[in-house]
Amino acid sequence: MVPELCTPLSSACYSSPEIILAPFMLITTRHNGPSCNDHADLWNQLWHECAGLTVKVPQIGERVFYFPQGHHEQIEACMEDEDDITIHNYDLPPKILFKVVNVELKAYPDSDEVYAKFLLLPDNGEGDGSTVRSVPQKIPASSFRKILSVSDASTHGGCVLPKLGVEKTFPPLDASQDQASQPLVAKDLHGAEWGFQHVYRGSPKRHMLVNGWNKFASAKRLKAGDTCIFMRGLERNEIYIGIQRAVSMQKASKDLTGSAMRRGVLVDASVSMTTKTYFTVIYHPRMCCSAFIVPYHVVMEALSVNYSAGMRFETLDDPEDMSRKFYGIITANEDVDPARWPNSEWRCLKVQWDVAPFSHLAPRRVCPWDIQPRALDVPHMPSSISVNRKRSMPFEPVIRSNPLSRTNENNQSDGSLSLALTLSVGGIGGSSRQNETNLAEDVKVGEDKSVNRTMVSNKSKGKEVCGGNQNA
Questions:
Q1: How far apart are CA 361 and CA 134, in angstroms?
Q2: Could you read off the pLDDT of 53-81 as tens digits, one per residue?
Q3: Residue 255 has what pLDDT?
Q4: β-pair type (238-244, 180-187)
Q5: Where is the TF-B3 domain (predicted)?
Q6: How far apart are CA 259 and CA 76, in angstroms?
Q7: Is 183 within 8 Å of 197 (Cβ atoms)?
Q8: Which of 4, 62, 107, 161 lies at a CB distance of 3.0 to 4.6 Å from 207, suitable for a disulfide?
Q9: Parallel, antiparallel, or unpaired: how do β-strands 206-209 and 159-161 relate?
């Protein structure tokens, strides 16, 4: 089976028997009991859990910018080859304005890997863009994730689950029993049902999935390092289960080369712009560091900031932990491919990262809409003015971390890439970080001198000073 890497309109034969989950749109409920709409909403939520909660899918009717460079990077990741710099860009601009006509959330039946299929139409209209915004999930289902160990992925045992995740997501067990157990029915992204026996036993006692787990692990070809996502269902003893692969199982087409696919998407985009016809795009969120179909208002807000080397940044909010932020500094603002895509905002910011794990996964470049300025006073520009592209500080950052991974209740990371990107606080030359450190030391010295003078003065009066400014 051939995955849909680009699916040009002229090559519909690429299509595979994938599972169509549901168009991503607002779902309404007409009665109190579970309905088909409720189940569809949960399927949408499970898709997003598998894609990564930081992945934002544009809505039907929303105006978006399409970035051909990002599409090429996805093909590069799928085909495991490098970009062909000899391919002409067919006079396409670095970003193209489209309107979303349809969105389908899909998954491959043999790997459960998720992707989205967009139907776009050129939009030359002027204005502030669509008023459509992302719609939150109507059913806030509880969920947790488990990174599989070697024993979990084995077909000769069971799967050990984190206690806190089970207690908030699974139907309650009578923990007072020595052999507490209950049957569970798990539904995957394709609607298939899998029967598990949930037990709480052992010394010390542990939550486990036993009967039925071996069959599931074998059928899904689970490996150590893969992540299983468990989500509460609508009925008693019903759960949903999704999979995030540690290594993609989808194989690229042997009939098409990466160069042919890149030419195909450029030709189709050019034809769509010229003839005002539909343009089909496949988006694999797990293969991209940054989305290449981005809402109009998100891009315009990001480009209103005058980015420059030395500016401090922080990542966008993490949906799983709103208090978790990562910080960094821009080292340069320059084109990735100035010859073919001049003045492109696609991953134009070179960054240096903070110290954190998984440094080999951290991208050296990010898009302006994946981060936000850390300082309160940020210079903004009218949206009609292009971003000032300073190239005076070429810098090769030392990647030290990748806090992009998400962590479950057992502090297990799933290693997924998402749009919440992390930047560093490392210095550049005579860095601002060093200046901040020097300033802090000067302030501390001044405070210490002030405290000493106060103590001397008070002791001369026979008084004792307690605490001083040490806890300030």
A1: 28
A2: 788 899 999 999 999 999 999 988 887 77
A3: 57
A4: parallel
A5: 144-247
A6: 9
A7: yes
A8: 161
A9: antiparallel
